[in-house]
Amino acid sequence: MGLAGDFDVEFRDIQGLVQRGYKELPAAEFVLLQVIDAKRARAWLSKLADRIEPATATGHDKADRASALHLALTYQGLQALGVGKELLDKFPLAFREGMATVHRERLLGDRGASSAANWRWGSAPCQPNADEEGLCETDPKLHLILLMYAKDGPTLSHIKKSVLDELDMSGLHTITGLDTVFLAGPECDPTGNPNGPKEHFGFRDGIAQPHIAGMPSREDGHAIPGNIIPTGEILLGYANAYGEMPEGPTDANGQGFGRNGTFLVFRQLHQDVVGFWNYVARQAADKGYGPVELAAKMVGRWPDGTPLVESPTGPQPTLQTHDRFVYARHQTHPDPFGFHCPIGSHIRRTNPRDSLNDDPQKSVMLSNQHRIVRRGRSYGKPLVPNMDPAKLMDAPDDGAERGLHFICLNAAIDRQFEFVQNLWANNPKFGGLYDDPDPLIGVLDGERSTFTVQQEPVRCTYSDMPRFVQMRGGAYFFLPGIAAIRMLGSMK
User: Fold this and answer.
1) For the segment 320-335, what is each residue's pLDDT rounded down to a tens digit?
2) Phi and psi of 449, rounded to 5°?
3) Are 231 and 214 in contact (CB under 8 A)?
4) DSSP state for residue 52 in the 8-state scheme
5) Running DSSP on this structure, what letter comes out for residue 424?
6) Largest alpha-carbon pair distance within the chain?
7) How many angstroms separate the CA atoms of 414 and 145, rounded?
8) pTM score, two decimals?
9) Which helix (H) or strand (E) holds 280?
10) CA atoms of 377 and 180, how far apart (whole Å)
11) What φ, ψ does residue 298 adopt, rounded to 5°?
Protein backbone atom coordinates (compact mmCIF):
# COMPACT_ATOMS: atom_id res chain seq x y z
CA MET A 1 0.00 0.00 0.00
CA GLY A 2 1.00 3.60 -0.35
CA LEU A 3 3.04 3.24 -3.54
CA ALA A 4 2.71 5.50 -6.54
CA GLY A 5 -0.43 4.81 -8.50
CA ASP A 6 -2.45 3.57 -5.51
CA PHE A 7 -3.92 7.00 -4.79
CA ASP A 8 -4.04 10.62 -5.81
CA VAL A 9 -1.71 12.85 -3.81
CA GLU A 10 -3.38 16.19 -3.12
CA PHE A 11 -0.49 18.45 -4.07
CA ARG A 12 -2.36 21.75 -3.70
CA ASP A 13 -3.12 20.95 -0.06
CA ILE A 14 0.42 19.92 0.90
CA GLN A 15 2.87 22.58 2.06
CA GLY A 16 5.68 22.79 -0.48
CA LEU A 17 8.36 22.30 2.19
CA VAL A 18 7.46 18.60 2.13
CA GLN A 19 8.52 18.44 -1.49
CA ARG A 20 11.53 20.73 -1.78
CA GLY A 21 14.26 22.40 0.23
CA TYR A 22 14.26 25.65 -1.81
CA LYS A 23 17.86 25.55 -2.96
CA GLU A 24 16.96 28.37 -5.34
CA LEU A 25 15.95 30.53 -2.33
CA PRO A 26 19.18 30.78 -0.30
CA ALA A 27 17.94 33.50 2.07
CA ALA A 28 15.78 32.24 4.93
CA GLU A 29 14.60 33.11 8.44
CA PHE A 30 12.50 31.19 10.95
CA VAL A 31 10.30 33.20 13.32
CA LEU A 32 8.91 31.80 16.58
CA LEU A 33 5.54 33.18 17.63
CA GLN A 34 3.20 33.24 20.62
CA VAL A 35 -0.60 33.49 20.39
CA ILE A 36 -1.82 36.39 22.54
CA ASP A 37 -5.40 36.70 21.22
CA ALA A 38 -6.81 33.48 19.77
CA LYS A 39 -9.68 35.08 17.84
CA ARG A 40 -7.47 37.58 16.02
CA ALA A 41 -4.78 34.96 15.46
CA ARG A 42 -7.31 32.64 13.80
CA ALA A 43 -8.41 35.45 11.48
CA TRP A 44 -4.77 36.01 10.55
CA LEU A 45 -4.38 32.31 9.77
CA SER A 46 -7.34 32.49 7.38
CA LYS A 47 -5.50 35.09 5.32
CA LEU A 48 -2.11 33.43 5.66
CA ALA A 49 -3.37 30.16 4.16
CA ASP A 50 -3.54 31.81 0.73
CA ARG A 51 0.15 32.77 0.98
CA ILE A 52 1.45 29.29 1.83
CA GLU A 53 3.47 27.76 -1.03
CA PRO A 54 1.89 24.42 -2.05
CA ALA A 55 3.57 21.34 -3.49
CA THR A 56 3.36 20.83 -7.24
CA ALA A 57 2.50 17.82 -9.36
CA THR A 58 5.71 18.11 -11.39
CA GLY A 59 8.12 18.58 -8.52
CA HIS A 60 10.13 21.11 -10.50
CA ASP A 61 11.02 24.39 -8.85
CA LYS A 62 9.48 27.55 -10.28
CA ALA A 63 12.21 29.51 -12.02
CA ASP A 64 10.46 32.79 -11.19
CA ARG A 65 9.73 32.03 -7.53
CA ALA A 66 11.04 34.89 -5.38
CA SER A 67 9.90 33.63 -1.99
CA ALA A 68 8.03 30.93 -0.09
CA LEU A 69 6.23 30.91 3.24
CA HIS A 70 5.33 28.02 5.56
CA LEU A 71 3.69 27.59 8.95
CA ALA A 72 3.85 24.95 11.68
CA LEU A 73 2.39 24.76 15.19
CA THR A 74 3.31 23.21 18.52
CA TYR A 75 0.79 21.24 20.58
CA GLN A 76 0.57 24.27 22.88
CA GLY A 77 -0.08 26.42 19.83
CA LEU A 78 -3.07 24.32 18.83
CA GLN A 79 -4.36 24.64 22.38
CA ALA A 80 -3.83 28.40 22.39
CA LEU A 81 -5.85 28.74 19.18
CA GLY A 82 -8.76 26.95 20.82
CA VAL A 83 -8.54 23.46 19.32
CA GLY A 84 -10.68 21.12 21.42
CA LYS A 85 -9.40 18.27 23.58
CA GLU A 86 -11.09 15.59 21.45
CA LEU A 87 -8.99 16.56 18.44
CA LEU A 88 -5.83 17.28 20.45
CA ASP A 89 -5.92 13.82 22.04
CA LYS A 90 -5.65 12.24 18.58
CA PHE A 91 -2.12 13.57 18.15
CA PRO A 92 0.66 11.11 19.04
CA LEU A 93 2.23 11.23 22.49
CA ALA A 94 5.67 12.44 21.34
CA PHE A 95 4.12 15.55 19.79
CA ARG A 96 1.87 16.20 22.80
CA GLU A 97 4.71 15.89 25.31
CA GLY A 98 7.24 17.84 23.26
CA MET A 99 11.02 17.63 23.06
CA ALA A 100 11.99 19.22 26.39
CA THR A 101 11.21 16.42 28.85
CA VAL A 102 13.50 14.39 31.11
CA HIS A 103 12.60 11.26 29.14
CA ARG A 104 13.57 12.85 25.81
CA GLU A 105 16.72 14.38 27.22
CA ARG A 106 17.86 10.81 27.83
CA LEU A 107 16.44 9.48 24.58
CA LEU A 108 18.00 12.16 22.38
CA GLY A 109 21.25 12.60 24.29
CA ASP A 110 20.44 16.15 25.38
CA ARG A 111 22.63 16.08 28.48
CA GLY A 112 25.11 18.44 30.08
CA ALA A 113 25.51 21.61 28.05
CA SER A 114 22.81 20.29 25.68
CA SER A 115 20.17 19.75 28.38
CA ALA A 116 16.88 21.61 28.06
CA ALA A 117 17.79 23.71 31.11
CA ASN A 118 20.46 25.39 28.94
CA TRP A 119 18.40 25.94 25.79
CA ARG A 120 17.90 29.44 24.45
CA TRP A 121 14.37 28.65 23.30
CA GLY A 122 11.89 25.76 23.31
CA SER A 123 12.06 24.93 27.02
CA ALA A 124 10.23 26.40 29.98
CA PRO A 125 12.30 27.17 33.11
CA CYS A 126 13.25 23.84 34.65
CA GLN A 127 11.89 22.99 38.09
CA PRO A 128 14.22 21.42 40.70
CA ASN A 129 13.47 17.78 41.46
CA ALA A 130 15.05 15.51 44.04
CA ASP A 131 15.52 12.69 41.54
CA GLU A 132 16.61 14.68 38.48
CA GLU A 133 19.00 17.49 37.68
CA GLY A 134 16.00 19.50 36.59
CA LEU A 135 12.47 18.87 35.37
CA CYS A 136 11.85 20.61 32.03
CA GLU A 137 8.93 20.91 29.67
CA THR A 138 8.20 22.56 26.35
CA ASP A 139 7.85 26.33 26.56
CA PRO A 140 4.09 26.94 26.93
CA LYS A 141 4.50 30.25 25.09
CA LEU A 142 6.02 28.72 21.95
CA HIS A 143 3.04 28.30 19.62
CA LEU A 144 3.92 28.79 15.96
CA ILE A 145 6.89 28.94 13.63
CA LEU A 146 6.95 30.84 10.35
CA LEU A 147 9.50 29.57 7.84
CA MET A 148 10.34 32.26 5.29
CA TYR A 149 12.50 31.69 2.20
CA ALA A 150 13.59 34.23 -0.43
CA LYS A 151 15.87 34.59 -3.43
CA ASP A 152 18.05 37.22 -1.67
CA GLY A 153 18.37 39.31 1.48
CA PRO A 154 16.32 42.33 0.34
CA THR A 155 13.45 40.10 -0.77
CA LEU A 156 13.52 38.28 2.56
CA SER A 157 13.46 41.59 4.44
CA HIS A 158 10.43 42.70 2.41
CA ILE A 159 8.58 39.42 3.05
CA LYS A 160 9.45 39.51 6.73
CA LYS A 161 8.24 43.10 7.11
CA SER A 162 4.99 42.40 5.27
CA VAL A 163 4.28 39.47 7.59
CA LEU A 164 5.54 40.82 10.90
CA ASP A 165 3.87 44.22 10.50
CA GLU A 166 0.56 42.36 10.73
CA LEU A 167 1.37 40.46 13.90
CA ASP A 168 0.60 43.00 16.63
CA MET A 169 -2.84 43.53 15.11
CA SER A 170 -3.27 39.79 14.65
CA GLY A 171 -3.01 38.64 18.24
CA LEU A 172 0.53 37.31 17.89
CA HIS A 173 3.82 38.11 19.59
CA THR A 174 7.29 37.50 18.15
CA ILE A 175 9.45 35.44 20.53
CA THR A 176 12.58 35.46 18.40
CA GLY A 177 13.83 35.19 14.84
CA LEU A 178 16.34 32.53 13.83
CA ASP A 179 18.65 33.74 11.06
CA THR A 180 20.20 31.41 8.50
CA VAL A 181 23.14 31.45 6.12
CA PHE A 182 23.64 29.65 2.82
CA LEU A 183 27.20 28.33 2.97
CA ALA A 184 28.95 28.11 -0.38
CA GLY A 185 32.62 27.55 -1.05
CA PRO A 186 34.26 28.31 -4.41
CA GLU A 187 32.72 25.18 -5.92
CA CYS A 188 29.34 25.76 -4.25
CA ASP A 189 27.34 28.31 -6.20
CA PRO A 190 23.90 28.99 -4.61
CA THR A 191 22.53 30.06 -7.97
CA GLY A 192 22.32 26.50 -9.17
CA ASN A 193 25.60 24.58 -9.01
CA PRO A 194 24.69 21.14 -7.60
CA ASN A 195 27.81 21.09 -5.41
CA GLY A 196 26.36 23.41 -2.76
CA PRO A 197 25.56 24.12 -0.05
CA LYS A 198 27.88 22.96 2.72
CA GLU A 199 27.61 22.89 6.49
CA HIS A 200 30.03 24.55 8.93
CA PHE A 201 32.42 21.59 9.26
CA GLY A 202 33.07 22.06 5.54
CA PHE A 203 31.17 19.08 4.09
CA ARG A 204 28.62 19.05 1.27
CA ASP A 205 25.20 18.70 2.89
CA GLY A 206 21.65 17.70 1.99
CA ILE A 207 22.51 14.96 -0.50
CA ALA A 208 20.71 11.85 0.73
CA GLN A 209 16.92 12.24 0.76
CA PRO A 210 14.24 9.57 0.39
CA HIS A 211 11.81 9.72 -2.52
CA ILE A 212 8.20 9.92 -1.32
CA ALA A 213 5.95 7.61 -3.32
CA GLY A 214 3.38 9.47 -5.39
CA MET A 215 5.36 12.71 -5.22
CA PRO A 216 8.23 13.85 -7.42
CA SER A 217 9.89 14.89 -4.17
CA ARG A 218 13.49 15.03 -5.34
CA GLU A 219 14.23 18.43 -6.78
CA ASP A 220 15.47 16.87 -10.01
CA GLY A 221 12.18 14.99 -10.32
CA HIS A 222 13.80 11.54 -10.35
CA ALA A 223 13.42 8.62 -7.94
CA ILE A 224 16.32 6.39 -6.95
CA PRO A 225 15.51 2.65 -7.06
CA GLY A 226 15.38 1.23 -3.54
CA ASN A 227 15.06 4.74 -2.09
CA ILE A 228 11.28 5.05 -2.40
CA ILE A 229 9.29 5.21 0.83
CA PRO A 230 5.48 5.03 1.13
CA THR A 231 3.72 8.38 1.26
CA GLY A 232 2.46 7.68 4.77
CA GLU A 233 6.01 7.67 6.08
CA ILE A 234 5.97 11.45 5.69
CA LEU A 235 2.33 12.54 5.24
CA LEU A 236 -0.69 11.79 7.40
CA GLY A 237 -3.69 10.38 5.59
CA TYR A 238 -1.75 7.88 3.45
CA ALA A 239 -0.60 4.33 4.10
CA ASN A 240 2.83 3.96 5.70
CA ALA A 241 5.44 1.19 5.44
CA TYR A 242 3.24 -1.10 7.50
CA GLY A 243 0.19 -0.58 5.28
CA GLU A 244 -1.46 1.47 8.02
CA MET A 245 -2.50 5.07 8.50
CA PRO A 246 -0.03 7.05 10.63
CA GLU A 247 -1.24 8.01 14.09
CA GLY A 248 -2.80 11.45 14.12
CA PRO A 249 -6.03 13.42 13.76
CA THR A 250 -7.39 11.51 10.74
CA ASP A 251 -10.02 8.79 10.49
CA ALA A 252 -9.61 5.19 9.28
CA ASN A 253 -9.79 6.42 5.67
CA GLY A 254 -7.11 9.04 6.22
CA GLN A 255 -9.53 11.96 6.14
CA GLY A 256 -9.83 14.77 8.66
CA PHE A 257 -7.77 17.59 10.15
CA GLY A 258 -4.41 15.82 9.90
CA ARG A 259 -4.60 14.83 6.24
CA ASN A 260 -1.67 16.09 4.15
CA GLY A 261 0.12 17.25 7.28
CA THR A 262 3.38 16.05 8.81
CA PHE A 263 5.46 16.54 11.93
CA LEU A 264 8.38 18.95 11.83
CA VAL A 265 11.32 18.39 14.17
CA PHE A 266 13.43 21.49 14.77
CA ARG A 267 16.77 21.38 16.63
CA GLN A 268 19.19 24.30 16.77
CA LEU A 269 22.61 22.62 16.87
CA HIS A 270 25.76 24.58 17.69
CA GLN A 271 28.85 23.27 15.86
CA ASP A 272 32.33 23.48 17.40
CA VAL A 273 34.20 23.80 14.10
CA VAL A 274 37.56 24.65 15.67
CA GLY A 275 37.25 21.74 18.11
CA PHE A 276 36.37 19.33 15.30
CA TRP A 277 39.31 20.18 13.06
CA ASN A 278 41.75 20.47 15.97
CA TYR A 279 40.76 16.98 17.07
CA VAL A 280 41.15 15.34 13.66
CA ALA A 281 44.46 17.15 13.03
CA ARG A 282 45.85 16.00 16.38
CA GLN A 283 44.59 12.42 16.09
CA ALA A 284 45.59 12.03 12.45
CA ALA A 285 49.17 12.98 13.24
CA ASP A 286 49.36 10.12 15.76
CA LYS A 287 47.60 7.40 13.74
CA GLY A 288 48.80 7.76 10.16
CA TYR A 289 45.75 9.24 8.41
CA GLY A 290 45.64 12.74 6.99
CA PRO A 291 43.23 15.09 8.82
CA VAL A 292 40.84 15.38 5.88
CA GLU A 293 40.88 11.61 5.40
CA LEU A 294 40.03 11.01 9.07
CA ALA A 295 37.29 13.66 8.97
CA ALA A 296 35.87 12.00 5.84
CA LYS A 297 35.84 8.64 7.63
CA MET A 298 33.88 10.20 10.51
CA VAL A 299 31.33 11.68 8.09
CA GLY A 300 31.29 8.88 5.47
CA ARG A 301 31.83 11.29 2.57
CA TRP A 302 34.70 13.44 1.39
CA PRO A 303 34.14 17.19 1.95
CA ASP A 304 32.94 17.63 -1.66
CA GLY A 305 30.23 14.99 -1.08
CA THR A 306 31.88 11.95 -2.70
CA PRO A 307 30.84 8.83 -0.70
CA LEU A 308 33.75 6.80 0.69
CA VAL A 309 32.15 3.52 -0.33
CA GLU A 310 32.35 4.68 -3.95
CA SER A 311 35.80 6.28 -3.76
CA PRO A 312 37.69 5.32 -0.59
CA THR A 313 41.00 6.89 -1.67
CA GLY A 314 39.85 10.39 -2.56
CA PRO A 315 37.07 12.64 -3.89
CA GLN A 316 35.73 12.24 -7.42
CA PRO A 317 34.09 15.27 -9.11
CA THR A 318 31.49 13.07 -10.83
CA LEU A 319 30.33 11.58 -7.50
CA GLN A 320 29.84 14.73 -5.44
CA THR A 321 26.07 14.34 -5.12
CA HIS A 322 25.96 10.58 -5.65
CA ASP A 323 23.37 8.72 -3.60
CA ARG A 324 22.80 5.55 -5.64
CA PHE A 325 24.91 3.22 -3.55
CA VAL A 326 24.77 0.47 -0.93
CA TYR A 327 27.43 -0.83 1.42
CA ALA A 328 27.52 -4.59 1.94
CA ARG A 329 26.46 -5.52 -1.61
CA HIS A 330 28.16 -2.72 -3.53
CA GLN A 331 28.91 -3.93 -7.07
CA THR A 332 32.53 -2.74 -7.28
CA HIS A 333 33.45 -1.87 -3.67
CA PRO A 334 31.54 -4.27 -1.39
CA ASP A 335 32.07 -3.02 2.14
CA PRO A 336 30.29 -5.28 4.67
CA PHE A 337 33.00 -4.77 7.31
CA GLY A 338 33.53 -1.02 6.98
CA PHE A 339 36.99 -1.03 5.43
CA HIS A 340 35.99 1.71 2.95
CA CYS A 341 33.28 3.56 4.90
CA PRO A 342 33.56 2.89 8.65
CA ILE A 343 30.60 1.20 10.34
CA GLY A 344 30.27 4.10 12.78
CA SER A 345 30.47 6.95 10.26
CA HIS A 346 27.69 9.51 10.38
CA ILE A 347 26.00 8.75 7.06
CA ARG A 348 26.23 4.96 7.53
CA ARG A 349 24.57 5.10 10.92
CA THR A 350 21.78 7.51 9.98
CA ASN A 351 20.91 5.52 6.82
CA PRO A 352 22.41 1.99 7.02
CA ARG A 353 20.94 1.00 3.64
CA ASP A 354 21.77 -2.70 3.10
CA SER A 355 24.16 -3.15 6.03
CA LEU A 356 21.81 -3.83 8.97
CA ASN A 357 21.83 -7.62 8.57
CA ASP A 358 22.80 -10.44 6.21
CA ASP A 359 19.70 -9.98 4.02
CA PRO A 360 20.32 -6.85 1.89
CA GLN A 361 16.72 -6.50 0.70
CA LYS A 362 15.36 -6.83 4.23
CA SER A 363 17.98 -4.39 5.47
CA VAL A 364 16.96 -1.75 2.93
CA MET A 365 13.31 -2.28 3.90
CA LEU A 366 14.15 -1.87 7.60
CA SER A 367 16.25 1.22 6.92
CA ASN A 368 13.44 2.78 4.90
CA GLN A 369 11.04 2.36 7.83
CA HIS A 370 13.04 5.00 9.69
CA ARG A 371 13.75 7.58 6.98
CA ILE A 372 13.20 11.30 7.41
CA VAL A 373 13.11 14.22 4.98
CA ARG A 374 15.69 16.86 5.94
CA ARG A 375 15.12 20.57 5.37
CA GLY A 376 17.79 22.18 7.57
CA ARG A 377 19.67 25.45 7.10
CA SER A 378 22.97 26.60 8.58
CA TYR A 379 23.27 29.71 10.72
CA GLY A 380 26.16 31.94 11.78
CA LYS A 381 29.18 33.34 9.97
CA PRO A 382 31.46 30.63 8.52
CA LEU A 383 34.82 30.25 10.25
CA VAL A 384 36.50 30.81 6.86
CA PRO A 385 34.61 32.08 3.79
CA ASN A 386 35.61 29.36 1.32
CA MET A 387 35.01 26.38 3.69
CA ASP A 388 38.37 24.85 2.67
CA PRO A 389 39.34 22.17 5.25
CA ALA A 390 42.99 23.28 5.16
CA LYS A 391 41.93 26.82 6.02
CA LEU A 392 39.46 25.58 8.68
CA MET A 393 42.28 23.68 10.42
CA ASP A 394 44.46 26.78 10.57
CA ALA A 395 41.77 29.25 11.61
CA PRO A 396 41.81 30.60 15.19
CA ASP A 397 38.71 30.30 17.34
CA ASP A 398 36.70 33.50 16.84
CA GLY A 399 34.21 32.57 19.57
CA ALA A 400 31.26 33.11 17.20
CA GLU A 401 28.01 31.15 17.38
CA ARG A 402 27.48 28.95 14.32
CA GLY A 403 25.70 25.73 13.56
CA LEU A 404 22.77 24.04 11.92
CA HIS A 405 19.05 24.57 12.23
CA PHE A 406 18.26 20.87 11.84
CA ILE A 407 14.77 20.45 10.40
CA CYS A 408 13.23 17.14 9.45
CA LEU A 409 9.78 15.95 8.43
CA ASN A 410 8.24 12.61 9.40
CA ALA A 411 4.84 11.09 10.05
CA ALA A 412 5.91 9.29 13.24
CA ILE A 413 8.35 11.23 15.44
CA ASP A 414 9.05 8.27 17.72
CA ARG A 415 9.60 5.67 14.99
CA GLN A 416 11.53 7.92 12.65
CA PHE A 417 13.48 10.87 14.11
CA GLU A 418 13.71 9.59 17.70
CA PHE A 419 14.55 6.05 16.58
CA VAL A 420 17.42 7.26 14.37
CA GLN A 421 18.82 9.58 17.03
CA ASN A 422 18.53 7.11 19.90
CA LEU A 423 19.14 3.65 18.44
CA TRP A 424 21.44 4.50 15.54
CA ALA A 425 23.22 7.78 16.36
CA ASN A 426 23.55 7.51 20.15
CA ASN A 427 23.88 3.72 20.35
CA PRO A 428 27.54 2.95 21.27
CA LYS A 429 27.13 -0.69 20.15
CA PHE A 430 25.69 0.06 16.70
CA GLY A 431 26.87 -2.45 14.08
CA GLY A 432 28.92 -4.46 16.59
CA LEU A 433 30.88 -1.48 17.92
CA TYR A 434 31.67 -1.10 21.61
CA ASP A 435 31.61 2.51 22.81
CA ASP A 436 31.22 4.47 19.57
CA PRO A 437 28.27 6.86 19.21
CA ASP A 438 27.83 8.85 16.00
CA PRO A 439 30.98 11.03 15.81
CA LEU A 440 28.95 14.12 14.84
CA ILE A 441 25.54 13.98 16.53
CA GLY A 442 25.78 11.02 18.95
CA VAL A 443 26.52 11.13 22.65
CA LEU A 444 27.41 8.72 25.46
CA ASP A 445 26.58 9.26 29.13
CA GLY A 446 29.88 11.11 29.39
CA GLU A 447 31.08 13.99 27.24
CA ARG A 448 33.84 12.00 25.48
CA SER A 449 33.69 8.89 23.33
CA THR A 450 35.49 6.75 20.73
CA PHE A 451 35.57 6.44 16.96
CA THR A 452 36.76 3.23 15.31
CA VAL A 453 38.16 2.86 11.79
CA GLN A 454 37.96 -0.72 10.55
CA GLN A 455 41.15 -1.79 8.76
CA GLU A 456 43.41 -4.79 8.33
CA PRO A 457 45.19 -6.31 10.14
CA VAL A 458 44.16 -4.24 13.21
CA ARG A 459 41.39 -1.67 13.59
CA CYS A 460 42.36 1.90 14.52
CA THR A 461 40.65 3.50 17.51
CA TYR A 462 40.44 7.23 18.17
CA SER A 463 39.59 7.92 21.80
CA ASP A 464 38.87 10.91 24.03
CA MET A 465 36.62 12.43 21.34
CA PRO A 466 34.66 15.42 22.69
CA ARG A 467 31.21 16.52 21.59
CA PHE A 468 31.36 18.72 18.53
CA VAL A 469 27.62 19.50 18.43
CA GLN A 470 25.50 20.94 21.25
CA MET A 471 21.80 21.78 21.49
CA ARG A 472 20.74 25.42 21.68
CA GLY A 473 16.97 24.92 21.41
CA GLY A 474 14.28 22.85 19.79
CA ALA A 475 10.66 21.75 19.56
CA TYR A 476 8.23 19.41 17.82
CA PHE A 477 5.81 21.10 15.42
CA PHE A 478 2.88 20.00 13.27
CA LEU A 479 3.09 21.20 9.66
CA PRO A 480 -0.59 21.04 8.62
CA GLY A 481 -2.13 20.77 5.22
CA ILE A 482 -3.32 24.10 3.80
CA ALA A 483 -6.96 23.14 4.25
CA ALA A 484 -6.25 22.46 7.93
CA ILE A 485 -4.81 25.97 8.29
CA ARG A 486 -8.04 27.33 6.85
CA MET A 487 -9.95 25.10 9.25
CA LEU A 488 -8.06 26.62 12.18
CA GLY A 489 -8.80 30.08 10.85
CA SER A 490 -12.54 29.42 10.59
CA MET A 491 -12.98 28.13 14.16
CA LYS A 492 -15.30 30.16 16.36
Assistant:
1) 988 889 999 888 889 9
2) -145, -165
3) yes
4) S
5) I
6) 71
7) 21
8) 0.94
9) helix 273-287
10) 6
11) -70, -40
